[in-house]
Amino acid sequence: MKLYTFSLAPNGQRVTAFLKEKNISIESQEINVREGEQFKEPFQSMNPFNCIPFLKLSDGSIISESVSICKYLEEELYPNPSLFGSTPKEKAYIDMWNRRLELDALSPLGYAARNKVAFFADRVLAGTRNDIKQSQDIVERGKQMADLLFNRINPHLEKNKFICGEKFSIADITGHSIFVTCERLKFEISDNFQNVLKWKSTLDKRECFKNE
Ligand SMILES: N[C@@H](CCC(=O)N[C@@H](CS)C(=O)NCC(=O)O)C(=O)O
C-alpha cells in the first residue's frame, strides 16, 4: 500500500493529519502537483482525475478523495481511535457534519481560492488545465457561503468542544482545512462568531495539525 500526495497541498494535509492523529505510518511518495507531475505517467493512468491524494492498495486498486482514503484506512486496517464513529448513529452523525462542512464551506472556499489566486489562472478546476476563466463572483460566493455556515454552526459550538461533541473526528479535520483556506484567502472570521473562533483555536493547538 502506498500513498501518493503532496505535502504542501491542503487535501494532502488532511490525510497527513488523519495519519498523525491515529499514529499511523505508511509508505508515501510526493507528486508535485504545482509542476503538473500528476499529468505524467504512471500517475495519469493511476488517477485519471489528476489529483492527489490517492492510495494504491496491494492489489493495485486506487482510492482517491482524502476522506475516502481515511475511511478505508480506518475501516480496513486501523479502527482505533475511531475518527468516523463506531455505531451506525455515530457514523451517520459524523458523516452529516463532514458533508455540511465540505459542501457548505470547504468546497466553495476551494473554488474561491482557485478563482482568486493568479497561479490558478489556467487551472480553476483541480486536476484540469484549460481556459475556463477565473470569476470574481465565485470568490465572493465562497466567502458568503462560508459566512453563512459559520453563522449556522456558531450556536451549535457553544456547547460542543468539537463539531460532533466531545470527541475529535474526521469532520474536525475538514473544519481545520476550512480555517487554513480562509487564512490563505485572507478572509477574516468575524468576531460575531466567537464559538467558531474558539473551535479554530482548539484545532490550531492539536498536535496532528502541527508542522503543516
Ligand atoms: N476532493 C478531493 C480534492 C483533491 C484536490 O483538489 N487535490 C488538489 C491538491 S489540494 C490537486 O491535486 N490539484 C491538482 C491540480 O490542481 O491540478 C479530495 O478531497 O481529495
Write a brief caption for the model.
Helices cover about 50% and strands about 5% of the residues.
- Tell me, briefly, the overall form: globular
Helix-strand category: alpha+beta
Bound molecules: glutathione
Q: Catalogue the unreliable spans.
A: none
Tell me the name of the CATH class of the largest domain.
Answer: Mainly Alpha
Round the mean pLDDT to the nearest integer and report it. Answer: 97
- The tally of beta strands, per DSSP, is 4
Distance, first to last CA: 23 Å
Major pleated sheet:
4 strands, mixed
Question: Could you please describe the fold and organization of this structure?
Answer:
The protein is α+β, with helices and mostly antiparallel strands. It folds into 2 domains: 76 residues, Glutaredoxin (3-Layer(aba) Sandwich), CATH 3.40.30.10; 122 residues, Glutathione S-transferase Yfyf (Class Pi), Chain A, domain 2. Helices cover 50% and strands 6% of the residues. It contains 7 helices and 4 strands. A 4-stranded mixed β-sheet has the order 2-1-3-4, covered by helices on one side. β3 and β4 form a beta hairpin. The chain is globular. The two termini are 23 Å apart. The model has no long low-confidence stretch (mean pLDDT 97). The site of glutathione (GSH) has 14 residues, from α1.
